[in-house]
Amino acid sequence: MTTIEKTVNSKNRKIIFLFLALAILIAVLSSLPAVQKLVQPMLQAPSRQILAKVSTVNGIRSVQYLILKVKDSSGLQIEIYQVNPDTLKQELRQKFDLTQDGDAYMTINKNSSNLALSDIDHDGHLDILAPSVDRNGNLRLNTFRFNSDLQNFEPYSQSSDVQPAE
Fold it and tell me: Average pLDDT of the chain?
């Protein structure tokens, strides 16, 4: 082997070693959740999927609401639209983010659903029930009650002043 051949082989080995080290570095970095979370949005096309849809009429003025459970690249959201009865135009009124959660189902009257309406606080207005599951696998029942004074929905947490139905 000549000196020139040894130099070329040595350069080839350095290049191969450099690419091998780079491949190992990329493999290690891509396994880290923080890096995955940073890179994933760059690789995905924005998508929006409607998982469920329900509608209700609430309030003294009998306002019609359209409620959607939506999944996009950032996670789950509950979107509430007010429907104009004359034009049937839908105007976004509220949005509740459930970004850390995945979709889940619940059973109501022997039917499986991932979005439902029920009068949970017994005030005569239908409230929103939206089951989800967090990244640890814990099931959640996200509940949003209709506030007739404010004419909107708000997260519901049972307090001591609410009496259960008999």
Answer: 85
